[in-house]
Amino acid sequence: MDGQISAYLKTHAERFLGELKDWLRIPTVSADPAFHADVLRGAEFLRSHFETLGMTSRLVETPGNPVVVAEWMGAPGAPTALVYGHYDVQPPDPLDLWTTPAFEPTVRDGKLFARGATDDKGQVFTHVKSVEAWLKTVGRLPINVRFVVEGEEEVGSENLEDFLRRHREELACDIAVVSDTSQYAPGIPAITYGLRGIFACEVTVFGPRKDLHSGVFGGSVANPAFGLARMLAKLHDEAGRIQVPGFYDDVLPLTTEEREQFAGLPFDETAYLSELGASAAVGEAGYSTLERRWARPTCEVNGLFSGYTGVGTKTIVPARATAKITCRLVANQDPKKLVEALERFLRANLPTGLTMEFHTDHGAPAFLFHPDSPYIEAAGTAIERAFGARPVLIREGGSIPVVTTFRQVLGVDTLLLGWGQNTDNLHSPDEHFSVADFQRGIHASAELWECLASVPRS
Amino acid sequence: MDGQISAYLKTHAERFLGELKDWLRIPTVSADPAFHADVLRGAEFLRSHFETLGMTSRLVETPGNPVVVAEWMGAPGAPTALVYGHYDVQPPDPLDLWTTPAFEPTVRDGKLFARGATDDKGQVFTHVKSVEAWLKTVGRLPINVRFVVEGEEEVGSENLEDFLRRHREELACDIAVVSDTSQYAPGIPAITYGLRGIFACEVTVFGPRKDLHSGVFGGSVANPAFGLARMLAKLHDEAGRIQVPGFYDDVLPLTTEEREQFAGLPFDETAYLSELGASAAVGEAGYSTLERRWARPTCEVNGLFSGYTGVGTKTIVPARATAKITCRLVANQDPKKLVEALERFLRANLPTGLTMEFHTDHGAPAFLFHPDSPYIEAAGTAIERAFGARPVLIREGGSIPVVTTFRQVLGVDTLLLGWGQNTDNLHSPDEHFSVADFQRGIHASAELWECLASVPRS
Fold first, then answer.
1. Which of B213, B277, B292 sits opposite A208 (nearest CB)?
2. What ipTM was estimated for this complex?
3. How confident is the model at residue A362 (pLDDT cuts 50, 70, 90)?
4. Cα dihedral sign for B176, B180, B181, B187?
5. Looking at the predicted structure, is the pLDDT value of residue A458 above 80?
6. Which of B304, B339, B355 to mutate to test the interface with A (most CBs of A within 10 A)?
7. CB-based burial of residue A6 (10 Å sphere; 0-12 exposed, 13-18 middle, 19+ buried)?
8. How confident is the model at residue A426 (pLDDT cuts 50, 70, 90)?
9. pTM for this one?
10. How many Cα atoms are found within 13 Å in the side-chain-facing hemisphere of A131?
């Protein structure tokens, strides 16, 4: 990367921080309609900021909050990266737990405290400033860059998929870049190359038509709460393996290299369990805690209810019992196929005298970026140059729906490059972003454009 | 029984019905404070009625509604019977489902419709009128009779036990008589000689300190909802036998005679299941539906809750899961011993990584009157004379707490002699009592005093 870019980043570092503070002062809380005018102001702040850099930029209306779209397309034939982020923030409550007010950005001990500092304004802004550094020094970027910065991520991104579908041609790109995750730990930057998929469902087991007196009738009819318990108890064997036939058939197993990688990461299991208040590491036999969280499918009961749930005793045989279930999936498991397999399994294990209903909720496949992909390689090099350490390749156990949407709508994979830390208090009081991580993020982003330019277009 | 008594019952039958109607017009709804003055009026109605018969009678104050106490103790050396009943009634709601208003007693098709017609004013009144018949003809009763008619049965009889303890000497008796149950079926009068006992408890299984994100953490910590399901699933084997060690050790088995008796009762299992909306008769292998309900212990989940129970999906590993459990007991099982055995069993089956808390609620032993008892024999004879059929000996699956209290406080057994029918709409709109059953009940009660007089005092 041109030496004048590095110099520009150093020279303008204070101003960059000041501009981010200006943006953070606008309370773009999407969950609370009282902040609606601020949300619009926050979007306009970013749109006009893009224009000052010499990019084309506009607000695209949606049924909810507008999406800020910007682009610099001056590198014909070169790849196009699409940076996704969000300008809306979580509500600041509880206000009294903030050391300094949520919307008065303050630097203490090298950290910038404010709602949105890391989630996601601060992280988005690293890419904005890296583009500025290229344009204001070299006068051009080595690749084409588009930005899609939405205002409803904290309230479920309800209008994003429709927006992407309606604008898919204008948003054509080769790779998506999202900085809304974290480094593995301080001093250990990371690229998240895998996310688990999910399917959600609900099973209700029906017994008698209505709750029955457990004295008069108990013992003579099937109890749906017991029936459901028996069905759920069969879902795992003693080794924690899911017993639904075919559940593991399509699982892409971890490679030896991946397992070695994960095993090499610093991970204090005792501290982890103590933090969660869990008395033991429990899960599928033969896998480490990180593997269980990142790379193995799961089946969890998220909720359970039947009969009387108030104080004291009500002597009934309940009429029904319900379990809410989600399964986390890994590559290459098919949510649709597996939710059907789960339903079949539950029906096959339904005790005599009971009936059941099964409802399927949302589902999404897992995301796995091959660790040897040239995009991962390019991002790794960029991060190493900025952070002084080769990033570790990690996965995450949750889902990031937009990654699936990018694959489905735009046909591209996503680089998940997090500059923050797990401990930055996302969604909590005293959210913050290390100023050094902010600056390294800008640097890494500036390197990224160059590294991505050399990836052959598929 | 003296012929003049039968004649008196016939002559005054219309007046008896009219007096009962007068009492039923007073809406003695104990659940609703708006009816408090009526409750007191209803108590006073009965108290003064006893006085007109030449009995001593008074209202005994409690922290709740007063108890009507009356007695005729003019048979020194003869046994003393204590008639228990209640003058309070269920709320009449939903009002619009009554054919005629709940507190405007109306006879249609030989049935007296009113709230409290059978539960329990009508049934209590049979004993009041039989005493009248003896006193107004023979001038004395063959035994001593006490009445305890409370006003809080429909709201849990909270003050009854304390009342009985405070007045135990004044209430000394040889046998208690309660008419608050039903005949087995029309034309099949019954004596209920057994009730099941009960213990209630609640088990909560704890996993992580708080609900965890099922993506980030799921698969690496024990899920308490699954843990609880596994524990509950172990409570019964495939044959429906409770697996708690020692659970059946003290069970007094049904005799061959009892099993033959029950098997000889008309019972339409298909109609029974259809009425309940249950698709199959399910329970402990080797027992009939009546045996399962009346004479076998059970273990039921009454309520179950864990994690998210609202609409849709919440992707969590819940922090805890709770089951409310009641076990029905039979003679000679000890509630205290068995609730401890259940706790031990659950703890022994608690999966790794979870903790549990166990809370014990109320418990009461079963009640079993030996079918060959001279009291049963005496009551059987009285009923046969009045109803023209020997009563069948049945049990009931529920508990009637006052029966246990009489045993514990007064040291006496209870004759459960129900004059009504299961189909009399107790607690429902259009509650009614067959006028013929009312009259046969008075007759049976009048015979009962004579039959009980010949039972040797223990």
1. B277
2. 0.90
3. confident
4. positive
5. no
6. B304
7. middle
8. confident
9. 0.90
10. 26
- CA–CA separation, B87 and B28 (whole Å): 7
* Interface touch B225/A293, C-beta < 8 Å: no
Q: Residue A191 in 3-state DSSP?
A: strand
Using DSSP's 3-state secondary structure scheme, residue A134 falls into helix
For residue A348, give the 3-state DSSP assignment: helix
Probe site for chain B from A158, A195, A226 (most B CB atoms < 10 A): A226
Q: Which two tokens stand for residue B261?
A: 């008796």
Q: How far off is chain A from B366, nearest CA to CA, in Å?
A: 11
Name beta bridge partners: B418.
B190
Residue in the block written with tokens 């300008």: A87
pLDDT in tens, A321-342: 999 999 999 999 999 999 999 9
Cα–Cα distance for residue pair B229/A306, rounded to 1 Å: 12
- Contact between A218 and B328 using a beta-carbon 8 Å cutoff: yes
**Distances B186 to B4, B190, B260, B387 between C-alpha atoms, Å:** 28, 10, 21, 11
Q: Find which of A192, A214, A231, A287 to mutate to test the B interface (most B CBs within 10 Å of its CB).
A: A214
CB pairs under 8 A between A and B: 286
Average pLDDT over residues B311-316: 89
Q: Please give the Cα distance from B327 to B349 (Å, whole number).
A: 18
Average pLDDT, stretch A342-356?
Answer: 98
Average pLDDT on A157-184 reads 96
For A294-313, the pLDDT digits (tens) are: 999 999 999 999 999 998 88
What is the distance, to the nearest Å, from the Cα of residue A227 to the centroid of all Cα atoms in its chain? Answer: 36
pLDDT tens for A15-49 read 999 999 999 999 999 999 999 999 999 999 999 99
Q: Write down the pLDDT at residue A401.
A: 86
Three-state helix/strand/coil letters over chain B: CCHHHHHHHHHCHHHHHHHHHHHHCCCCECCCHHHHHHHHHHHHHHHHHHHHCCCEEEEECCCCCCEEEEEECCCCCCCEEEEEEECCECCCCCHHHCCCCCCCCEEECCEEECCCCCCCHHHHHHHHHHHHHHHHHCCCCCCEEEEEEECCHHHCCCCHHHHHHHCCCCCCCCEEEECCCECCECCECEEEEEECEEEEEEEEEECCCCCEECCCCCCCCCCHHHHHHHHHHCCECCCCCECCCCCCCCCCCCCHHHHHHHHCCCCCHHHHHHHHCCCCCCCCCCCCHHHHHHCCCEEEEEEEEEECCCCCCCCEECCEEEEEEEEEECCCCCHHHHHHHHHHHHHHCCCCCCEEEEEEEEEECCEECCCCCHHHHHHHHHHHHHHCCCCEEEEECCCCHHHHHHHHHHCCCEEEEECECCCCCCCCCCCEEEHHHHHHHHHHHHHHHHHHHCCCCC
**Average of per-residue pLDDT across B2-12:** 96
Two structure tokens written together for A117: 């500092």
Strands A111-113 and A432-434: antiparallel
Question: Which structural domains are found in chain A, ordered by start?
Answer: 3-195+367-453 (3.40.630.10), 197-251+297-364 (3.30.70.360)
Angstroms from A224 CA to nearest CA on chain B? 9
DSSP labels for A381-426?
Answer: HHHHHHHSSPPEEEEESS--HHHHHIIIII---EEEEE-B-TTS-T
Residue A2 Rama label (left phi>0; alpha psi -120 to 50; beta): beta
B232 in Cβ contact with A323 (< 8 Å): no
Our CA angle for B66, B71, B76, nearest 5°, is: 150
